[in-house]
Amino acid sequence: MKKIQLQRVAPADIEERSMEIIGQELGERVFPADQLPVIKRVIHTSADFDYADNLVFSAGAVEQGIAAIKGGCTIVTDTQMAFSGVNKRVLEKFGGKAVCFMSDPDVAAEARERGETRATVSMERAAALEGPVILAVGNAPTALVRACQLMDEGKFHPDLVIGVPVGFVNVVESKELLLTMDVPHIVARGRKGGSNVAAAICNALLYQASNNARE
Amino acid sequence: MKKIQLQRVAPADIEERSMEIIGQELGERVFPADQLPVIKRVIHTSADFDYADNLVFSAGAVEQGIAAIKGGCTIVTDTQMAFSGVNKRVLEKFGGKAVCFMSDPDVAAEARERGETRATVSMERAAALEGPVILAVGNAPTALVRACQLMDEGKFHPDLVIGVPVGFVNVVESKELLLTMDVPHIVARGRKGGSNVAAAICNALLYQASNNARE
Question: Beta partners for A137?
Fold first, then answer.
């Protein structure tokens, strides 16, 4: 086997060292203090520095996300992958929980009956939740568009919408729509995003909420 | 609400349309026919065309992956996110299954006792599996390095290693190590990769295996 020279970094310190490297490579760029941990965590999960330019935050979005977490919010994801990526251990410390309705059999059945997409029915389920809600869309632009319609109709009042679907068909459009809405939002403008990005943003907010709680 | 002009594409046709767009944007570049669906699916999951340059295939890797799937292989992932992203429905059609040992309580317990990482113990679990195995590492370079050591010691004989960890510490090194190993591999060279990329590569192979099976 080829000898390779690994950096001697203890497993527990790898994340910290990674964040240092990301900070160095961001150089002299200045980001708002509350947004920086979100931007760095998305780069950490993708190794893609485009997110330093892509991510758009409505005023106070990070603060509102943290407040929702501290209020025991439900994080609604649009994929099982994003659900898997959210740090439920930290979320549960605040009395919150994560849910993904997309693969629920009754959501599929209702979508079939009504001739709707599962994304649409899932968003209606999300709108019916009690208590604070963070909606994290990393995959389905249809889900994001439906969520915007429900908000426009006054039927859905999420505390924060993380709009980071990825792809080539109606993805850019769905995110540009969210950017016009009067709801706290964090958006990855353009085609890029994904379930990993959605989960990373949730976790960045969760870790900031934990740090605040410790202070 | 702002009026947005959505492309009129039926939900069932969005993936096909996305793949067409990706094909158009790849332009006149020519890729081996068996590798192209893998490259396109990774771009589909990330909207990142860097993967057209990053992905490295050992000779026959796609064919060997498809053969493993048809032989009812176990796909071993290093994260729950990658596990979530693998299309288990298709995998099970071939008699295969997906597993992720990383969050098993007994893996954590054994790692603690032996002063090892969970990644190390997980790879030893993978090495002990019966039948064909595809190892898909999207996160932990320590897992990939340990897998290479076990292969070097003749203790682990995966049919294919998908080496696509993401990040900044020992990630590049772990992938360069895999590239020197005499084992079928698909590697995302450089820092980029992730659980979503690992799952996308598995799914690209699964769909090719399904298409073959239908022919």
Answer: A163
